[in-house]
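Weekly modeling sync, notes
Attendees: S.R. (lead), two postdocs, one rotation student

Agenda item 3: backlog of single-chain predictions. S.R. asked that every request posted to the team notebook include the full sequence so nobody has to chase files. The rotation student volunteered to paste the first one in as an example of the format we agreed on. Action items at the bottom.

Example entry:
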Amino acid sequence: MDDLKFGKRNKRGDWAPNQPAETAPLFAFPPRLMAVLKWLPHYFFPWNAIFAASAVAYWAWVIPPVETMRTLSLGWIAWLYAVNAVAVFLFYGAFELHLYVLKRQENRFKYNGKFPADHKSNAFWFERQNLDNMLRTFLWGVTIWTAVEVGMLWAYANGYAPWLSFAENPWTLALVALVVPIIHEFHFFCIHRLIHTPLLYKWVHSVHHNSVNPSPWSSLSMHPIEHLLYFGTAFYHLFLPSNPILMLYQLHYAGFGAIPGHVGFDKVEIGKEKLVDSHAYAHYLHHKYFEVNYGDALIPLDKWFGTWHDGSPEGEAQMQERYRRRKEKLAASKARLEVGGAAE
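Predicted structure, as returned to the notebook:
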């Protein structure tokens, strides 16, 4: 597959798409009906459909009976951790094997032309990004994922969360299912801005940003506090008219859904002719520039708050202008403090 038909590569070997990143037309004003209808299939396929199907599969074959979940016990908790760990290993590992171990695409469609395994860095445990990322994923990521899952299932089993049946409330639950990605986007943007405040960034979020060149195992490589905030997206279902399957969908959207944004490739080649879009460019730019694209572009929150970067020269200029204004503001503030101190 010739990736230069879709983008360009610089002298360092980094690839960028020809088209700048775009926000979804869902919240455009005035409304763009035709654009929404054209975009709508991408809302469901392939990623959201995969995460929803995995939630249904969990409910059918993994989640214990309600009677069992009414009481917290090591047996079913350990079972859920084991299934989650295996699922993450297989799902994340499939992308890692295809793109980074076997390198079946080489560096076609890869934003950063380098591969993390080829470079050591003391920012990571054992100076290895992949090993560091995997350990953090399984030690804390899957553990906290499972803890939130167990807590929510226990709440449903004991009547502490609203549990609507699909038979009696099909339209309500269909609406909740449709907005699961929107809930995730809103939650992710809010906690992401929070952990970019100086103190939390230094002690919490910097762990995730060590992976400047993200790969699949970077997806859940976080500080435990960030894991708890991130998977806290499931807690909305304590108040929403919802269902355990939709809560699982919300969790899987966060857990398995972290992969597309960190896969490091714009498109994944399936066979010789088929391409699957990762829609990762906006989040890759966040890992590259740190202070842009706090959301995933489903809701144009970054546009509304002035932190959007679409990868274009215009986006770069806007980012640099924002940095310049902030630098001037800090310099002015420092000057006022110095004048005030001299006056005393």
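Discussion: group reviewed the output briefly. The two ends are 69 Å apart (CA to CA).
Action items: rotation student to repeat for the remaining queue; S.R. to check formatting next week.
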